[in-house]
Amino acid sequence: MWNRRAFLKDLAGAAAEVFFVGCALRSAAAKPQNLGGSGSRRRVTVGGRRILTVDIHSHCSIAIDDLLKQGASANSSSGSPSPPKSPLLSSTNVDVRLQQMDEHGIDVQAISINPNYNYGADRELAGRIVQRQNEKIAEICTAHPDRFVGLGTVALQHPDLAAEQMDHAVKKLNMRGFEVDSSVNGEPLSAPKLDPFWAKAEELGILILIHPGGAVGAAPRFPGNGFLDNVIGHPLETTLALSHLIFEGTLDRYPGVKICGAHGGGFLASYLGRSNHCAEFSEACKPVRKKPPSEYFKQQLYCDSIVFTAEGLRHLVAEVGASHVLLGTDFPYDVGFPHMGDSREVDSVLGVPGLSEAEQIAILGGNAAKLLRIAS
In angstroms, rounded to a whole number, what is the distance separating the alpha carbons of residues 112 and 330? Predict the structure, then answer.
């Protein structure tokens, strides 16, 4: 549980074999930025009141190379290669991460693996990979319960096993949700074979973060300059995933499921009018319950705030509502390689014109605190 008085403690140490990275991170770890003096703590206030801030989108990498050597074809379903090793923020330097959180005004981070999901692993290997990843995340959160909550991982290529892993992770490891890829070995998340996963997510009442591990078939589709696999490919994958879940009826079959689409919900949230139009005029676009796709953003779907401009975030809020936008940063921020995190963090929300104080508080942490069961 989050405890305001615990903010002043000097937290250090965490689980072994853990490295904190961001979504496309390849090289050096981010260096803390000095905001108001060395070691200073930024306390975010809205309307003169200290508020809780929660970052829904923050990565770590768990060392599993020894396990991968024992199995073949365990790479992510996206086909993206494993990111090269780099001198990142290791478990012995978690105090550096906490220092940066302090300086940037982040009270709590929901930490999830760097998205390489190993959906090619067989059942036995997948079980060992997920067990290690979830246990290591849980160790970090247990060591720093006021600063971190965990979003676990599951072996979606084995849906019944994934359901078992979810049950264990929530009930034994105190996971608050799970991060998954946008597809599973080429199959959409709406595939009927994944129903055990969605049924368990609804039963447990936990949040699912859809974060692409890469764009399927990226090499021939996104050649040349522009880092297009990430810049276009990642939000496109999220758009496809959410659209399948809407139009194939998965969200209707499991109305209690809560999903956050990374990177602003992909392109779907900002272009809902087109999906609504098709649903209104074409039988090919009719959701099972015959309601506009935008309605799902009032009930089951959420977006993180990573859209990079004040106008973009203002528009996102106008489309889906402030109650369905969660602060995300894609922490940490790389040096020397294109990384798509937003280092402005809380200022990306505070700088949006026209947001009410209640909307700012909700986006900065109130919404995530409810979904992740963080006491405020």
Answer: 10
